User: What shape does this take?
Amino acid sequence: MSKETTRGGAPREERLSANEIRPHRGSHLELTETAHCEACAKPCVAVCPAGTYAWSGEQGRILISHENCLECGSCRGICPYSVIRWKNPFGGTGICYRYG
Ligand code: SF4
Ligand code: SF4
Assistant: This one.
């Protein structure tokens, strides 16, 4: 991530580092269908503020780092094929926001 600031505020990395992510072994994110991903413009990669999605040309699929997720919900809305299944992380895991 770049060191962006908002009107004189702290850099984004600094603000995000105040949060805690409690990872769970299982992923709360999954793709119900992957056939469309290769030809898709991959807005899931662009929209995620946490870098959760990455396209692997070598593997020909989207890789998901669910432990990065900030639970903003943007990916569910932007996938043109509605193939992203997003569940609340298992109890007690996931993002814990410190400020806000
Ligand atoms: S937006 Fe949806 S269809 Fe497109 S690459 Fe991401 S998961 Fe696949
Ligand atoms: S819910 Fe938000 S942070 Fe989590 S994977 Fe989707 S876009 Fe990224």
